[in-house]
Amino acid sequence: MVDASVFEPYQPEPSGRRLPTEMVHIRDGVLADVPACVGLVESVLKLDPAPWEQSLTASITDPQRMLHVAEDAGQITGYARSTFWTRPPDAPANAAPSGWYLLGLVVAPEYRRRGIGRALTVARLSALASRTSEVWYFANARNQSSLDLHATLGFVEVTRDFWFPDLTFDGGEGVLARARFDDTSS
Predict the structure, then answer these.
(1) What's the pTM?
(2) For residues 113 and 14, is the Cβ–Cβ distance under 8 A?
(3) Does 23-86+98-117 carry CATH code 3.40.50.300?
(4) How many angstroms separate the CA atoms of 36 and 41, rounded?
(5) Is 91 exposed, middle or buried (0-12, 13-18, 19+ CB in 10 A)?
(6) Domain locations in the chain?
(7) Given 15, 57, 77, 111, which is the most exposed site by the fewest CB atoms within 10 A?
(8) pLDDT tens-digit readout, 122-177
(9) pLDDT in tens, 7-66
(10) What's the 3-state SS for the chain?
């Protein structure tokens, strides 16, 4: 569980100075990026970095996962993951459906509110558009910045009553949302 205190404070309009697009490069992650991403897990999310090295490495080496990074002057300033998840046969009735999920968008605090999270999300959606007709995403109901970002990219709330393995939300409530590439209906 990620403590809600690590979320970007909600502001409906960006307030930070946006970096020129050519300064921040969004690209597919490579194995050499894993240590910097693990560092963001520890410094931004305040989580134990030990289990994250394996997970982030798998996001590069497993064809059912993806890692995108934001880089500024050779420094990794953020990352975002995607994964294909298969609903287990013994899952509860309210289990999230099988499909591609956007996971783990992390941006260093000094780079927030500059369009990096949006750019990382657009990169993931672009990469997934050829693989699927829909993408899923979940967030803590308290993370209004994330909910707003994803809504502007076509995500529509589906439910707040869902199960996903090993997932709990600070405050107890999450939002499951979906974006479709083939149409705009929910």
Answers:
(1) 0.85
(2) yes
(3) no
(4) 9
(5) middle
(6) 23-86+98-117, 133-186
(7) 15
(8) 999 999 999 999 999 999 999 998 999 999 999 999 999 999 998 988 888 999 99
(9) 555 555 555 555 444 578 999 999 999 999 999 998 888 888 888 999 999 999 999 999
(10) CCCHHHCCCCCCCCCCCCCCCCCEEEEECCHHHHHHHHHHHHHHHCCCCHHHHHHHHHHHHCCCEEEEEEEECCEEEEEEEEEEECCCCCCCCCECCCEEEEEEEEECHHHCCCCHHHHHHHHHHHHHCCCCCEEEEEEECCCHHHHHHHHHCCCEEEECCCECCCCCCCCCCEEEEEEECCCCCC
